[in-house]
Amino acid sequence: MIRILLTLIFLGFSTNSYSDQNSPELDILFEDLYNVEDITQQNKIVSNIWSEWMKIDNPESQKIMDMVPYFFQTRNYDEAIEALSYVIELEPGFSEAYNKRATFYFMMGDFENSMKDIESTLALEPRHFGALDGMSRILISYKRYEQAFQVYEEMMNLMPNDVTLHMKMDRLNNLIFDDA
Questions:
Q1: What is the dihedral of CA 16, 18, 19, 22, to 10 degrees?
Q2: If you ran DSSP here, which 8-state letter would residue 45 be given?
Q3: Tell me: the pLDDT tens digits for 40-83?
Q4: Is 141 in contact with 135 (CB distance < 8 Å)?
Q5: pLDDT for the residue 179
Q6: In the chain, where are the structural domains located?
Q7: How many whole angstroms separate alpha carbon 168 and alpha carbon 174?
Q8: What is this structure's pTM?
Q9: At how many degrees (to 10) do helices 95-107 and 129-141 cross?
């Protein structure tokens, strides 16, 4: 409890913190993502965006975020959710902690909690294409194809030249017309 209080006090005094969705680099990266046409360059930009989203100024939280690949590799989803819940407790404004926890919930088939975390992610970072993609996947699993298509359209506003996104939209269009 004391550690949490000290962390909150420290965060209250650190006002020039620019990590995660608050990074000033993100506006530039998203502008580049919108304009890029080369797939290799696009992949680099997307990777740089993910890198910015994964950064957090709290060293304890950063250690946990750095462990996320380990949790994926070992499929230790319960431990991942517990660790990310702790990060969220420490850093309730850190969108990527919610997004990663949403991913683990999704992998466990807990779409309800995944969607809640996706909504939290998007409330903090509306441009989060990973969260938007996760939301669309959940909507597709519920056969809510039109809503999923609308989410993909939102993603198109961020990355209009993304070939993979175009393919997902084409597949989804096929599902919509097959289901009609």
A1: 120
A2: H
A3: 999 999 999 999 999 999 999 999 999 999 999 999 999 999 99
A4: no
A5: 65
A6: 127-180
A7: 10
A8: 0.85
A9: 30
Q: What is the pLDDT of residues 125-155, one digit of tens each?
A: 999 999 999 999 999 999 999 999 999 999 9
Q: Give the whole-angstrom CA distance, residue 85 versus residue 95.
A: 12
**pLDDT tens-digit map of 157-171:** 999 999 999 999 999
For residue 164, which phi and psi values (nearest 5 degrees)? -65, -40
Residue 21's pLDDT is what? 77
Q: In this predicted structure, what is the pLDDT of residue 1?
A: 37
Rounded Cα distance, 113 and 3, in Å: 28
Q: What secondary structure does DSSP assign to 72-139, as a single string?
A: HHHT-HHHHHHHHHHHHHH-TT-HHHHHHHHHHHHHTT-HHHHHHHHHHHHHH-TT-HHHHHHHHHHH
* Rounded CA separation 44/129 (Å): 15
Closest of 155, 91, 84 to residue 113, by C-alpha: 84
